[in-house]
Amino acid sequence: MTRKIKTRDVEKGLYVNYLQKGEENLQTAKKALEDRVYNSAAVSAVHSAISSADAYCVFGLKKRCASESHKDTALLIGDVPARQGLSQQIKGIFESIIRIKNMAEYEERLVKLKEAEKAVKEAEELLNLIKAELK
Q1: Which residues lie closer than 8 Å to 28 by C-beta, 6 or more apart?
Q2: At residue 134, what are phi and psi to the nearest 5 degrees?
């Protein structure tokens, strides 16, 4: 049985707002990494990825995920019609970034340099892939 994903309809043209949020959060993540503020870098990278994914879904489906689970966002990404394999590539990068979310935001341990670098690198890769597809 296919799982029903809770979504919100969004006017297609508003995808640019989500792209802007993705870009701003990525800038913040890069600055935090530069300033050696690794927890903030990881959290901002995660939020960049979420906004980038929303832009992709709004552009391709005219909706965004409204579920509390980012796994549902990943499933929705997979439904976006795109050139061969692109949605699956975007979904994979998104899932990789989201893995650090709970640890960075809620757990007692701190984000390490390598983890923050990976999250920022993947957030940038995700945003660039999505921007290239939506232009």
Answers
A1: 40, 44
A2: -90, -5
Q: How far apart are CA 81 and CA 98, in angstroms?
A: 22
- Give the domain ranges of the chain: 7-134
CATH architecture observed for domain 7-134: Up-down Bundle (1.20)
Q: Per-residue pLDDT tens for 83-111?
A: 778 999 999 999 999 999 999 999 999 99
Q: Quick check: 1 pLDDT over 80?
A: no
Q: How many other CB atoms sit within 10 Å of the CB of residue 121?
A: 16
CA distances from 123 to 2, 5, 45, 64, 129 (A): 29, 24, 6, 18, 10
What six digits make up the tokens of 93? 């990068």
